[in-house]
């Protein structure tokens, strides 16, 4: 009787051991441990591709604002044909490549304010800054592109619903690189919350951007401004020195084309054909 009980216990232990080994083997063959099976996969972060473009479809959008005293009024709906715009601001790395291949000398070089003075290897993927309007225009033309108009820039940033920020109508701390953030330009795409409805990055903060537009009054704007005309070029967006909660995407700034500040830019291109680079 005693032997029979011992034999039964041994058999039971052996069965449990073999079952455990079978489970371990099954997990090993699948390349997973039992605890890892069924675990949610880690989402992949999309790779940043400098020079990548986004298609903005043809159609209407809300331009400007009705704020009293604003040079961006009256608010109105306008229609634009389809166009492409750079997903990110042009980087130091890209501008260096352009300069080497083309031999282009920036306007600031003759004044001792060449953009390379503000460029280090660690800032290769930071937006290029301290370039004039002509410097930005020359870069875009070298690759068959152009600077965006301020209307194109605003549509790419706000979408069609007239939102205040790229993410919506309420200021949210930590989504973009303004004074509340790093207080200095950072690598493109670092602030993943600053993305427009079309997927365009860094249009609220990081650096202000040149457009192709002259500083002219909007249709229906009865205000007088001695700066209106073909003297100043429009610069859009806020910078890392701007207070984000006071900024609005419809705001306009105007500067002489040869101004040398921490302005950057992105390029645009006509049509619906594949943009390439």
The CATH top-level class label? Alpha Beta
Looking at CATH, the homologous superfamily is paralog of FGE (formylglycine-generating enzyme)
| Shape by Cα distribution | globular
Strand order in the sheet with the most strands: 7-6-5-8
Q: How many domain modules?
A: 1
Mean of residue pLDDT values:
85
Structural class per helix/strand content?
A: alpha+beta
Percent of residues in helices comes to 10-25%
Would you tell me which CATH topology applies? paralog of FGE (formylglycine-generating enzyme)
Number of strands: 9
Distance between the termini: 86 Å
What portion of the residues fall into strands of 2 or more residues? Answer: 5-15%
Number of helices: 4
Oligomeric state of shown chains: single chain
Largest sheet: 4 strands, mixed
- The CATH architecture would be Alpha-Beta Complex
Radius of gyration: 28 Å
User: Which stretches are low in confidence, meaning pLDDT under 50 for 5 or more residues running?
Assistant: 1-44
